[in-house]
Amino acid sequence: MPIDSGQTDGAGPRVRADIGQRDRANPAVPGGGPAALSTRDLKLGFGTNTVLTDVTIDFQPGKITALLGPTGSGKSTLLRTLNRMNDKVSGYRRQGDVTLDGQSIWSPAIQPMALRRKVGMLFQRPNPFPMSVMDNVVVGVRAYQRVPRGKLREIAEQRLRAVGLWDAVSGRLGDSPFRLSGGQQQLLCLARALAVNPGVLLLDEPTSSLDPVTAESIEQLIRDLAPGLTVVIVTHNLSQARRVAQHSVFLNRGRLVEQGDTNQIFDNPAEAETAQYVGGRFG
Ligand SMILES: Nc1ncnc2c1ncn2[C@@H]1O[C@H](COP(=O)(O)OP(=O)(O)OP(=O)(O)O)[C@@H](O)[C@H]1O
Ligand SMILES: [Mg+2]
User: Fold this and answer.
1) Whose CA is nearest to atom 3 of ligand 1?
2) Which domain CATH number covers 101?
3) Is 226 within the bounds of a domain?
4) Taking 80 as the threshold, does the pLDDT of residue 147 lie above it?
5) For 31, which of 47, 73, 220, 268 is 20 to 30 Å away at the CA?
6) Is residue 72 in contact with ligand 1, taking CB distance under 6 Å?
7) Do the domain assignments include residue 283?
8) H-only helix segments in 49-148
């Protein structure tokens, strides 16, 4: 089982505005604020199958970027590349680079676990670890540094409050997370990802397996996370992309077709393919 803090496969009230900013209540892990994440001439594939070529994106710090495209267009492959989750996948190959605050994420100076502390991730389906609710939240903090139990509880409470889960789980901190509802599990995974103060949060269809009410509250949380975090969200829900993302990137048929301001991508796309997609005419 991975101990990586932020690697979680996401519902509730508003997130505290200071999440992602320097964190006085959690001195064990330095808060860095939003990180600068860029890709340069990325080419990704599996075996002989090239999934994406020529992917150059500057994800704007403290902003939300949506990755859009039909099924199989390489959105998850790209997202997982951003925190090196594909590195050990059989057949995976890559050319080009990804930089975090100007440094290549494949630099020998960067350990994958340290990278994933800075670049947290939430998946389509919640993936709590088989440990208590509280331990799920603080697992990454503990991996990073020895912290007294009382302090860990304080951090857990703070993060659970931030995602709006505290009232539901305050009496169940020692329980298994698998007794929580799907939406609550996703919120728990979000609290876990936030507990280590990442600079980037990657979200792969984080609300697509949730009921509309829970999905809406997660969406609100995501909006409130920026500007304290740089957020990249994969979504098939075009209305959601419009609501949450300042920037959008459209991928199709193995390449990055178009990127820009979300309003421009939706209202005035430069490419016919983009117009077709955002107009709901394919995908
Ligand atoms: N581990 C893997 N081994 C081989 N091929 C893979 C692997 N993971 C993904 N692929 C292939 O890469 C391509 C892109 O897949 P990816 O999951 O990135 O698409 P996606 O845009 O996220 O699609 P969806 O919207 O359905 O989630 C697909 O052709 C897929 O079959
Ligand atoms: Mg996908």
Assistant:
1) 46
2) 3.40.50.300
3) yes
4) yes
5) 220
6) yes
7) no
8) 75-81, 112-118, 133-144
Total domains in the chain come to: 1
Q: How far apart are CA 182 and CA 60, in angstroms?
A: 31
Q: Which domain holds residue 188?
A: 7-278
Is 1 within a domain? no
Establish whether residue 253 lines the binding site of ligand 1, counting it when its CB lies within 6 angstroms of any ligand atom: no
Whether 269 is covered by a domain: the verdict is yes
Ligand nearest to the CA of 47: 1
Model pTM above 0.70: yes
Ligand that lies nearest to the alpha carbon of residue 92, given by its number in the listed order: 1
Output the CA 217–ligand 1 centroid distance in Å: 28
CA 46 to centroid of ligand 2, rounded, Å: 15
Q: What pLDDT is attached to residue 255?
A: 95
- Decide: 75 in ligand 1 pocket, CB within 6 A: yes
Tens-digit pLDDT profile for residues 192-239: 999 999 999 999 999 998 888 888 989 999 999 888 999 999 999 999
- 51 CA → ligand 1 middle, Å: 8
